[in-house]
Amino acid sequence: MTTVDNDLISATSRARNHAPYDPPVILVTEPDEQRRLLYMTTLRDAGYDAIGAADTRTALAEAADRSPSLVIVQIAGATADTLSICRRLRTQAGHQRVPILVLTKYDDAYTRDQIIGAGATAVMVEPLKHQTVLVKQVRRLLLTATGRRRAIS
């Protein structure tokens, strides 16, 4: 074997012995497939592990399976049905303190109060002027969440 081969084997062995950094998992719940994919791509480009769900049932299953560090939920309005995802996430074991970022097109105090009252951590009004605004908000929420959460700089 050559020195290069030995170096490659040694490097490969070291890589196997050191677990790679696991980026925070972000669950994106958005019924519109194009927007869901846009948000997921934006988050992946920023270094996060983004997973998607089109509806409440899928989102709750993904949350139970993957234990996300943060959940993004698109809500059409402050109705009992659309707010149920926040309430249900808060009752799932291990998700009581996970930040929930709600995206909505409604920018009024009543809607914000209803969303926060349902268990959301923060609200952003759509359309977003630029996708970097989403990444900055995600990073901020992860940094201010409880100790075990990590953000990517």
Task: Describe the protein.
The structure is a single chain. The protein is of the alpha/beta class. It has one domain (23-142): 3-Layer(aba) Sandwich (Rossmann fold), CATH 3.40.50. The chain is built from 6 helices and 5 strands. The protein has helices at 3-17, 33-45, 56-66, 80-91, 109-117, 131-144; strands at 25-29, 49-53, 70-75, 100-104, 122-125. Strands 2-1-3-4-5 form a 5-stranded parallel β-sheet, with helices on both faces. The termini are far apart. Mean pLDDT is 82; it is low at 1-19.
Question: What would you say about this model in short?
Answer:
This protein has 153 residues and is α/β, with parallel strands linked by helices.
